[in-house]
Amino acid sequence: MGISVAAGLAFIQLGLYMGFKENASIVVDNTAGDIWVCAQHHENFDFPKQLPPNTLDMVRSTRGVKDANPMLIVFNKWKMENGAEKTVEIVGYDVEHNVGRPWRLLRGFAEDLDGAGAVTIDVTAESKLDNADLGTKTEIGQVQAHVVGITDGIRSFQGNPMVFTDLDNARSFGHLSFDAVHYIIVNLEKGASRADVLNTLNNLGYTEAYSREEFSHKAQDYWLNSTGAGPALGMAAVMGLIVGIVVAGQVLYTSTLEHLKEYGTLKAMGATNFQVACAIMAQAVAGALPAHLIAGVMLWIAGQTIGGMGIHLSFTFHQYCLAVFATILVCVAASLLSVFKAMSVAPAEVFKG
Asked: For 75, how many CA atoms within 13 A lie in the half-sphere containing its CB?
């Protein structure tokens, strides 16, 4: 049980870390595009700067660019029935060209988002928004809005509900000019050199351009490293592993001390130190395997519980298997102290009174 709790703690902390990392760049990772263009001195995806009015035309006229689609990120207040307000993150995209659309739409149709005031909400944020559902009417930034779609599992790193809508609606909610643009998502022509297009776009003088992978990493780096959230979650996971090592080592060492005579008997019967060491390490593996099944159940329960709070815990089966293998190795390493103790036992000690 001690190993189970320690492994479960480590797995949950790792899952939280992976979940926060995924949320930090969730829109970028799920938007089809080769290159992202933003204003100079850009720091973070969630806090963009407005591009100059002619930037979209300049990007579209660049050699190697197949198409370029604008996007807006706007924050404003969602009005509740009781008059209270909740900040929401609004993703505005060109519904006609479909680049930047919500990728997990449970109910409703993305095509309806070009209607005046039409927005989506996510199932993880329904409770934060007065249990809003399809057809719910409200105000965002004192502008009329209504829900036409429900998404599933689209969360922002900050925890603000994320809603999708058409560009014109986003400008209206944010009280921005008719040509306001924060990002331009570029798809390249077949055979075009991404490096050449990036170089051209970076030399416009007022823009920065990144590949999708670079832009995703930039978003993750800001939230996980610049804010200190990443090291904090990583340290918690490491502490879980340390607890696991201590617990596993203590249990195995105590068991070895209780059975020193049995190990001495084995050696008196001709068992080698290597065979005794293998027996002890086999005990470590035998204790660790069922412990990790319990830890897996703990991880699943935590994922269901935390997910209901709007926090994302990301841990795939492949990652779970790798974590189990790694922590079994940790348990085997923790058994080495017991191995050294058993190897030091002289067979003659068996015959002492």
From this structure: 11
